[in-house]
Design goal:
Structural class: alpha+beta
Helix content: 25-40%
Number of helices: 13
Oligomer: single chain
Strand order of the largest sheet: 4-5-8-6-7
Strand content: 15-25%
Largest sheet: 5 strands, antiparallel
Radius of gyration: 20 Å
Order of helices and strands: EHEHEEEHHHHHHHEEHEEEEEHHH
Length: 335
């Protein structure tokens, strides 16, 4: 058992002051914030996480889901996944987010897991979770065991020769497609980060997964208003029907008028080192007809730079078919 100091933050400034004690913001951090704990507890038991300080932030008033001016929605960092998934405004205006959350984990875990905790969910790469094996994400410079090892479930987009771990979250794929923003408070004040800039590709520093700095505290996730007439959907392909991570998934938000795409927003999961915004497919489809023969070309554009490993080459075709089917289902609803 690794000893650590436990405290409860009475306010955001208290939490930030405690968090600022950390020398690093990502792997091996000296300080960890505790919300639902559904990932943190597991990683501490596995000896992957060894914080010296654990700061409980559950007493902070950050659990509300509320409408904001302009028609958007603000989700508190501590809002539980089950609350968000079943919230009337999410069900009505952001079904893609509700569907994504409900296809992740189990009911019991969703009752505990927080919005910000899910946002920061760590990879399920078996080598990251096994402290006897080299892992650059866990111990920079030690090597990536997955490249020559078991990599069936890992990423084919955004990888580097240092790391091929995939982002495991379903929620994050929907947030990426929605163009969410992340509100952060830290020792240097408040800032807002578009979700497309929040996650970091592994490159040469896979231990850094996000732009968070020591002491930074996520307070809210903000969703912009959905486009008028939009239909959205989350499609997840996995080995079994429940309690399983995606091999490939797609979040699609589309507005169709007169048989053509007025707008389309797409993100993919299970295939990227980060939730993958499919900008190439969006650009290809915008203004084009809802012709299923075009969906394949859009999917090809997204996966053209895929770098499959020894065991996950099947993901290239699976991801293409996932996106084609998701687009087909979304446009069928608007036909």
């Amino acid at each position: 058992m690794e000893l650590f100091e436990f405290s409860r933050a009475a306010s955001a400034p208290d939490a930030i002051a405690a968090g600022a004690k950390s020398k690093t913001a990502q792997q091996g951090a000296d300080v960890r914030y505790l919300a639902g704990g559904t990932t943190l507890y597991d990683l501490m038991k596995l000896d992957v996480e060894r914080p010296q300080y654990v700061v409980d932030i559950n007493r902070l008033p950050l659990d509300r889901v509320e409408k904001i001016e302009g028609g958007g929605l603000r989700i508190g960092a501590l809002a539980r996944n089950s609350v968000v998934a079943h919230h009337p405004d999410v069900l009505k205006h952001y079904p893609v987010l509700s569907q994504a959350i409900l296809q992740g984990a189990s009911g019991q875990i969703r009752n505990m897991a927080s919005t910000s905790g899910n946002l920061l969910q760590r990879t399920r790469c078996v080598y990251f979770r096994d402290v006897t094996m080299p892992c650059n994400k866990r111990e920079p410079g030690s090597g990536c065991s997955a490249i020559e090892g078991f990599n069936r479930n890992l990423a084919i987009l955004g990888t580097s020769d240092k790391c091929i771990a995939s982002n495991p979250s379903d929620q994050n794929v929907a947030l990426m497609a929605l163009g969410a923003t992340v509100q952060i408070q830290g020792p240097k004040g408040e800032r807002t980060v578009p979700i497309g800039e929040f996650f970091l590709l592994p490159g040469n520093t896979p231990q850094r997964e996000t732009v968070l700095l020591p002491g930074d505290l996520i307070t809210h996730i903000t969703l912009p208003a959905m486009p008028t007439g939009a239909t959205s959907l989350y499609l997840k392909l996995r080995d079994r029907a429940s309690y399983e991570f995606a091999l490939a998934s797609a979040a699609v938000i589309a507005v169709v008028n007169d048989g053509k795409f007025d707008s389309v927003q797409i993100a993919m999961g299970g295939v990227g080192t980060i939730p993958w915004r499919a900008s190439a497919a969006e650009a290809f489809l915008k203004g084009k007809s809802t012709d299923p023969t075009l969906y394949r070309a859009a999917a090809e554009a997204v996966l053209k730079d895929a770098r499959p490993q020894s065991e996950n080459g099947f993901k290239v075709e699976l991801a293409k078919r996932c996106l084609v089917h998701a687009l087909t289902l979304v446009t069928k609803e608007q036909a």
